[in-house]
C-alpha cells in the first residue's frame, strides 16, 4: 500500500471531479423531476406509499438516475483510495475538489452564477488543497 503519493492524490482529485459533476447533473435532473411532478399533481397522497411513489418517479428520470449511479461508483472508488491514502489528506482534498467542481459544472450547465465569489472561493479551495498535499510530503531539513 502506498503512503499517499501522487497516484493517491490523482484518485482523490478524480473522485472529487466526478462528485462535483454529478452533483450539478443530479440537481438538473431533480429540477426536471420537480417540474414534471408539478404538472402531474392531482392530489397529495402522503405517507409511506406516497413517498415510495415519488422516489420511484425520481429514479425513472434518467437525467437524475445516471449521474446518481456514477456518483455512487465514485463513492466506491473513494473508499478504495482510502486504503492507500491517509484520511487526513483524502477527505479535505476530495471535498475541496468536489466543492470547486460542483460550482464549475453548475456554471457550465447554465445555472446563474456570480463569477467573482466563485473564482475567489475556488482559488481558496485550490490553495487549501495545495497546503494539504504539501503538508503530507515528508520535509527534508536543508
From TrEMBL:
It holds the Pfam family TMEM234. It comes from the Eukaryota. It is found in: Membrane. Coiled coil: none annotated. The keyword DNA-binding does not apply. InterPro entries: TMEM234. Its main location: membrane. This is Uncharacterized protein. It comes from Nymphaea colorata. The lineage of its organism: Eukaryota, Viridiplantae, Streptophyta, Embryophyta, Tracheophyta.
Amino acid at each position: 500500500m502506498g503512503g499517499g503519493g501522487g497516484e493517491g492524490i490523482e484518485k482523490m482529485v478524480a473522485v472529487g471531479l466526478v462528485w462535483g459533476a454529478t452533483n450539478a447533473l443530479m440537481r438538473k435532473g431533480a429540477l426536471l423531476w420537480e417540474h414534471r411532478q408539478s404538472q402531474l399533481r392531482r392530489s397529495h397522497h402522503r405517507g409511506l406509499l406516497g413517498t415510495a411513489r415519488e422516489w420511484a418517479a425520481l429514479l425513472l428520470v434518467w437525467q437524475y438516475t445516471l449521474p446518481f449511479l456514477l456518483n455512487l461508483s465514485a463513492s466506491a472508488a473513494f473508499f478504495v483510495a482510502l486504503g492507500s491514502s491517509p484520511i487526513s489528506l483524502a477527505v479535505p482534498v476530495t471535498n475541496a475538489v468536489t466543492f470547486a467542481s460542483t460550482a464549475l459544472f453548475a456554471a457550465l450547465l447554465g445555472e446563474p452564477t456570480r463569477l467573482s465569489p466563485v473564482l475567489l472561493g475556488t482559488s481558496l479551495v485550490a490553495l487549501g488543497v495545495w497546503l494539504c498535499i504539501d503538508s503530507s510530503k515528508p520535509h527534508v531539513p536543508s
